[in-house]
Structures
1.
Amino acid sequence: NAGVTQTPKFRVLKTGQSMTLLCAQDMNHEYMYWYRQDPGMGLRLIHYSVGEGTTAKGEVPDGYNVSRLKKQNFLLGLESAAPSQTSVYFCASSPGTGRFLNYGYTFGSGTRLTVV
Amino acid sequence: AQRVTQPEKLLSVFKGAPVELKCNYSYSGSPELFWYVQYSRQRLQLLLRHISRESIKGFTADLNKGETSFHLKKPFAQEEDSAMYYCALSGPRGRGGSNYKLTFGKGTLLTVNP
């Protein structure tokens, strides 16, 4: 009954380093999303996926890449971290079809990333 | 373009007082509206969906299409209601991920004082 699991929970990176954030869901959801949460900015969509093997850009995609090789996993990559990417990152998933369409998103617990 | 506006960054009330968190939206069509709550350093949780017309933890929200608003209300605030509240909007039902991208407001931090 895990829902959406994000790893790691915390990370400190130096400018220019790379890392990958992992999101895993066990609800067989079709759609998955990556958001970043910044004070006074709310949540902004980075990338999303409507199914295995598909990805699309959201509102703030620059500096990030994603992959959805397996339906249950959605990876967010930072190739060359910058201080502007210091944020809390949330992954979410939602059903694609069926009677649970409008039950909203299920969110992970977040990854707090600091880039120094 | 779809947009969600929460005009108050901060809202402070006393325990037992009524509370109203404002949400206005911009969308050409019939959107789906949601309220999410985030308690201190926890994940976001779905609080309400306009489509279900439900009341959760004493909160209600009515979609007013004429005023394009979806304000969240509770008649008697409790200390445990202190949290960040986000109003969110998505497109109507249908296939395709774009109809399920949630656009969030910037949030309102509610503090209920004893």
Note: The first strand of chain A starts at residue 4 and ends at 7.
2.
Amino acid sequence: GAVVSQHPSWVICKSGTSVKIECRSLDFQATTMFWYRQFPKQSLMLMATSNEGSKATYEQGVEKDKFLINHASLTLSTLTVTSAHPEDSSFYICSASLLPGQAPFEQFFGPGTRLTVL
Amino acid sequence: AQTVTQSQPEMSVQEAETVTLSCTYDTSESDYYLFWYKQPPSRQMILVIRQEAYKQQNATENRFSVNFQKAAKSFSLKISDSQLGDAAMYFCAYRSGDFGNEKLTFGTGTRLTIIP
């Protein structure tokens, strides 16, 4: 149980275009989902916390107009990288936690999306 | 703010031997959760083990166990009978016990190599 999927797993796009990444909790409901960015050989950097039915909370230094997050249902959150540039190339990972107060309390991670901007 | 420190960027161990990965953290909270995640070359994050701070007993999952020292704010991971499939990046992570704050704070990771 507690499976999280991401789509696509790999995307290549041209500079200036927008890319949407989907994160789905397949067998549980998730009030809260998280979006991370990971550079090669580095740790995960939290970009934003996505809450179902409300605005996302962005970490300091993350451009909310560039990284649009929508959490339309208890099983789906999307990250849209708008007007992507080569410096946005990275590995993006989403995760989800169970409903507040519901054990276990770890986050369940998707397999990640590799974004390459040409 | 909480911080998590992993002081060993790389570790290696002979297959079938035991290795310990270190993790320290800083927090002013008394209720929290600690985790070890594994990230193999596929880059899929996999939970290895969890520890609730209110539990004095160290968590164990098969060949994986932790040494949780709350007063010292230390949370090391011991891998016994190391196997080739254990080769991965290992991340220590902290989560507040406040249900309104579910963010994970990660350490910088330790790359574990298994020598056949």
Note: The first strand of chain B starts at residue 3 and ends at 5.
